[in-house]
């Protein structure tokens, strides 16, 4: 028996994804619509002997092509032609939700309405007669509570009944007033006569979209037939000018007004009754009086977000330690079971250390996404965007830009990859681009350990204060960079910020679990594979091509001289025998010193060492020597790599017997580092090129590699100028 294709559609925050998760459970996968950045979810379920494929369409308020979500939802319906569309409607906001329903009726899709959150409506004193609503709309209406599954069996039974009828699409007519109705009839005759776009849309739907000036339909019309499209556009222009003269409104405003009039006429026919005063303060309103208050709201927001990250770092500490111990055990296992050589070095330094540094953060990422999913599903994150919109608009951004910044590490962790992906919720392409180009400035979870290392080494007495200052600095610099972009390459008028503040709800464990795992798996899949490749490449760059023969012979001769305790002519005069054969050093210490110096020389002769040395004339202006350059190169693969590369680079060439001293102490004792260099390095690390995974993600989300290249160049130049200024000013005033 063939699978029946169903689609779930509805407004954002109407409970659509909750219903999808309840119906499909783990039998789902996430994909990406071709040529567009909006995700879709597809799952399967079985009722009796009938199997269904269920697609969760993006949440949208209308079918007018204003956002990617609306384009995707409409194109899916007209191209895939699902047998049934289940329209999720928020029963507590019925009038607004039915606006999308009207457009489904006009499109003619086989429809079943899921009247969700009926319990919330009852708590607000709203009683809805589902049978009467079904009678007036002419489609089945089933009350449900998606959160606990109440009524979903009846809903799917109704969907199965509609699917088995397999009726053709039957568009519903809604009157839009005398002027527009006459124009629609004229357009209908022209569209039907010439079969204009009728293979995709009902003729009346096409006519209405032309009156609404739907850019996507207008573009398709030009491709279909330029002459017919011009005729239709001429008729629409004529009626638009007439309406402007007589009523001072555009056709799209009249259409919206009449749709709401159609909805009100239905609701007032005994569909909805109110048991008590509309002005009553509901629970959500009471909470919002505090959480969205002009003064208390920001304070509460900071406390809540601080609590989120406190929860993340506290609860993930033990699992992260477990993960680290697993990779340590794995490294020891390979070290003890393989003979010394390039292959063992690649497995330990290239694969385990590289991938382990990233996968070790998986527990932290999982707890972070669990906390974010809780705030998102509860309805609080919408309030954060609402409150921050006023500040963000000063810098040319949008209230919806707040969450990508927070997810990318707005407090004390996170990851730029999901932060960049979160920008897809922004409707304006230029605001979206400005956001995804600046979210990498946040202090992600990979940068935090590097900052902690340098702050602990050079500012140990005020670690908490400096960490907080650098966190606030990341926000300020990101917003300033966004302002620069919005004033230059991404110049454009800001879009209005209109969003729904959904009622507060207590999230379900099932929903939290699914959302957490989806995001964590994306992190593992996107980060782990790329980091693996880059770690191996970086290991090879720091290992090959190896020492020249005369250098290797010089080190071997020096070892023989130490072992035999005799003088020997050193083939290479660059090897300092006096340094390596100090009287205070015993034989083992002298041999260890030889090994360390050989490692440093090997590193200098490696591809990475040569690049680091070549960059030194420029980088030293900002306080960075060649070994620091190698670590910064590694940071392009992943910022975590900076620590391991610094540890490797600065352990070479030291002849101190206390070989196991921490990296922070080695940097503190190094003549190449001081407080000014540390601040310069932290600023550069915070703001230079995003890691490679983020760059790939930017290219994918922006739809072009040129924006990914721009991100690398812009961020690195910005970071270099900042670091250079701090180092030069700090050195001039002798602050090091």
Distance between the termini: 76 Å
Secondary structure category: alpha/beta
Mean pLDDT value:
79
For the report, how would you describe the main beta sheet? Answer: 7 strands, mixed
Strand count: 9
List unreliable stretches of 5+ residues: 30-37, 277-281, 567-581, 653-660
Classify the beta-strand content into a percent band.
5-15%
The 3D shape can be described as elongated
Work out the helix count: 32
The radius of gyration is 32 Å
Helix content: 55-70%
Strand order of the largest sheet: 2-3-4-1-5-6-8
Write down the domain tally. 3
Structure write-up:
With 736 residues, the protein is an alpha/beta fold. The protein contains 32 helices and nine strands. It has three domains: 4-165, 3-Layer(aba) Sandwich (Rossmann fold); 178-255, Orthogonal Bundle (Helix Hairpins), CATH 1.10.287; 281-545 and 606-629 and 663-736, no CATH class. Strands 2-3-4-1-5-6-8 form a seven-stranded mixed sheet, sandwiched between helices. A two-stranded antiparallel sheet has the order 7-9. A hairpin with a 6-residue loop joins strand 2 and strand 3 (39-47). 43% of the residues are buried.
